[in-house]
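Appendix B. Worked example

We walk through a single record from start to finish. Start with the input: the chain for Enoyl-CoA hydratase, Limnohabitans lacus, length 258.
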Amino acid sequence: MARATILTEIHGRVGMIRLNRPAQLNALNDELMDALGTALLDFDANTEIGAILITGSDKAFAAGADIAVMANWSYMDVYQRGFITRNWETIRQVRKPVIAAVAGYAMGGGCELALACDIIIAAESAQFALPEIKLAMLPGAGGTQRLPRAIGKAKAMDMCLSARMLSAQEADRYGLVSRVVPDAELPAAALKVATQIAGYSLPALMAIKEAVNRAHESSLSEGILFERRELHARFASEDAHEGMHAFLDKRKPVFQHR
Ligand code: HXC
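Next comes the structure step. The output line below is what the pipeline stores for this chain.
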């Protein structure tokens, strides 16, 4: 039987997805991306799950799109198969927080996959690059758009045009990642963050994720208006009243995720 391209596990309210093509450094072929999309949508629909964690191996989060598969594709091949849109748009549909735990290489599509996540926790070994230029290709899974928004034009142009590789520390300094931890601590640290987040009220998490994403996708005044509507909507949430009353009562809130 063919080896599964991803592995999934559930830890409490955290749905975990491990990319699993170690011999190819988790190169992202259609089969892996389809499985990833299915797993993401399943966890997103599962009311017992509050956050999703995506990780790879110690050596590679993912080394990019599968070059061996792409090498002989024609324009019509990629157009007809909806290359990128078919698989990658799924990631944007996920409403729950998605956390990437990155060790080793996050290159090309692997870096773009991490960028599509909401939080990136990097091991000290993590290395980030968009080296498509070396192949006379282009970072086509959101890289040319998300990277400048994440780290600014100067650093993004450098990475895209020169294939510059960033260490975890540089990525941290430039705002590409959320936190850096020693390699040995990555699995536990990432699960701890995911578990903490998954314990909060799910509708509040989804509202915050949507509002923060607006910061990239709209003008400031539209974003502020959207944020205000989301704030007002919080007052229709049982969890929000529970959270505030629990604070006043000096007790832990019990969220129903409503
Ligand atoms: C297919 C890949 C691969 C990839 C590595 N492998 N990256 N196969 N697609 N993206 C395979 C190698 O061919 C090799 O197979 C095995 O994985 C181990 O890789 P090595 O190169 O031997 O490992 P190492 O010397 O440690 O170098 C690691 C590396 C290097 C620096 C990450 O593999 C590398 O540069 N890979 C390509 C990175 C890249 O260009 N990514 C962008 C792809 S384009 P064998 O059979 O020899 O053992 C892209 C487009 C995005 O992502 C837009 C669309 C999604």
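Two observations about the output. The CA atoms of residues 162 and 230 lie 41 Å apart. The longest helix spans residues 30-45.
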